[in-house]
Amino acid sequence: MIRILHTACALLLVAVALVAYGVKEEVRALRAERDALLERRLEARAALATAEAEWRHLNAPEELLRAAARLYGPGRLRDADGRVLAPPRPDQAAALDAVTMVR
Question: What is the pTM of this model?
Fold first, then answer.
């Protein structure tokens, strides 16, 4: 009877060891997947920050006027009253910011 009990305990020990090994491997795989996802998230944030900086630069009024001047030629850009458009001066930028904040 004791031999059967020892054999059963040994088999139970092997089964528990196999289950523990399986759990360990699953945790290792999940950690690797987590690390890969974190790396992808960091890369996406860096790409987004770069895209936002480029967007801010390209949508600045003076940059838009320069691009339009390259496309249409200097002096051809006019407002609704027929005045030639020019990039805003630094002292005008504060007035433009105040107008956009009011709206």
Answer: 0.50
Find residue 71's DSSP bridge partners: none
Of the candidates 91, 102, 93, the one whose C-alpha atom is nearest the C-alpha of residue 63 is 93
| Distances from the Cα of 39 to the Cα of 12, 33, 46, 54, 85, angstroms | 41, 10, 11, 23, 46
Q: Tell me: the pLDDT tens digits for 63-86?
A: 877 777 777 766 666 666 777 766
Phi-psi region of 75 (alpha: psi -120 to 50; beta: other; left: phi over 0): left
**b or e along 55-84 (b: 16 or more beta carbons within 10 Å of the residue's beta carbon)?**
eeeeeeeeeeeeeebeeeeeeeeeeeeeee
In sequence order, what DSSP letters do the residues of 46-80 get, joined into one string? HHHHHHHHHHHHHTSHHHHHHHHHHHH-TT--B-T
